[in-house]
Each structure stands twice: as structure tokens, then as C-alpha cells.
Structure to design on (183 residues):
């Protein structure tokens, strides 16, 4: 095989591990899939750099990854990847700049995100995770359906019986038989 000179100038793709960011309560509150998804998005952000008019341009604010591709990268299901993106939005690590579109002809477009701890071309980092407080999540605009239900709603559903017996004390079975329960 011959040598490809185009690949020799290419830089390796990496994302910085900044310890101060990882010590924030917003990072510690993230789930493990959300942490993994953040690094996949950060690599995509820095990998798409280009030199334009003598300065380096990053694509922060235009970072996208479809749920299927992100799930394949992370080695998980699509629902887990969607929950990870929803968790990142709730804690302020990413902000949706352009929501996903299903598409009339069957070709949809993935949502675009801005990583809040990185600068864009036009403004410095906004750093929403530094202002996050427990139980005060940011609104989730995309992938809201993947968020887990609040704890009190889940326990309320568990305390209710699925098929309670009639109040008369008589249990009616599907085949028509009845069982009298002594009170």
C-alpha cells in the first residue's frame, strides 16, 4: 500500500480532561452514559476544526450526532443514548441550538448542540454547569421523552395495585368462576 500524504498532516482526535470541570456537582450528578456521551460530543467538536483566514475555527454550536450513531459509539441502546443527552441538557453541559427534524421523505436531521464549557467563534463559554444546583435542572428541549420520571411518581405507581379486587369481597376470574373471600 502506498503512502497517503493527506493523513500525515492530520492531528489526533482528543478531548481535554479538565479536573476543575470534573469536580463540579453537575458532573458528579451525571450518569455514566451521560459522561461518556459528553466526551464523544467533545471529540466531535474539536475534530471538526479548520483554519479559516489564519485563525482556527471550531464547530461548537454545530456539533451533532444522531442517536443511532451515538449509541453505536457508546456501545449501548438508542434509549440509553437519548437519556444521556437529556441528562447532559438537564445539568447544563450542552444546549440545543437546532432541534432534530424527522423529515418528510424519510431522511431526518440530527439535533445540533453547543458545549457550554467551550468557547464558540462569537462568544466565550457560558459555563452553565457551574451554576447548576441539585433538584434545579435546566429545561430539556430535545429528547425530553427519554428523561426518567421523578422518584415520587414512580413510587406512587408501585403502591397502587394493578387489578384491585371488587369491594364486595367476591373475586371474579376470567372464566366466570367466583371465589368468596371472608372478611
Amino acid at each position: 500500500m502506498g503512502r497517503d500524504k493527506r493523513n500525515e498532516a492530520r492531528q489526533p482526535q482528543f478531548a481535554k480532561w479538565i479536573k476543575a470541570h470534573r469536580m463540579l456537582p453537575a458532573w458528579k450528578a451525571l450518569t455514566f452514559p451521560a459522561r461518556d456521551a459528553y466526551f464523544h460530543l467533545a471529540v466531535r467538536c474539536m475534530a471538526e476544526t479548520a483554519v479559516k483566514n489564519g485563525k482556527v475555527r471550531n464547530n461548537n454550536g454545530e456539533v451533532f450526532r444522531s442517536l443511532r450513531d451515538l449509541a453505536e459509539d457508546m456501545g449501548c441502546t438508542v434509549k440509553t443514548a437519548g437519556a444521556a443527552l437529556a441528562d447532559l441538557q438537564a445539568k447544563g453541559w450542552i444546549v440545543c441550538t437546532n432541534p432534530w427534524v424527522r423529515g418528510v421523505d424519510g431522511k431526518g436531521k440530527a439535533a445540533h448542540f453547543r458545549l457550554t464549557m467551550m468557547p464558540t467563534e462569537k462568544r466565550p463559554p457560558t459555563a452553565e454547569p457551574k451554576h447548576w444546583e441539585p433538584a434545579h435542572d435546566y429545561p430539556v428541549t430535545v429528547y425530553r421523552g427519554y428523561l426518567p420520571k421523578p422518584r415520587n411518581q414512580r413510587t406512587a405507581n408501585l403502591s397502587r395495585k394493578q387489578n384491585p379486587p371488587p369491594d364486595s369481597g367476591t373475586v371474579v376470574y376470567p372464566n366466570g368462576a367466583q371465589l368468596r373471600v371472608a372478611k
In short: The radius of gyration is 24 Å. The beta strands are 50-52, 55-57, 63-64, 94-98, 112-115, 170-172, 178-180. The longest strand covers residues 94-98. DSSP finds six helices and seven strands in the chain.
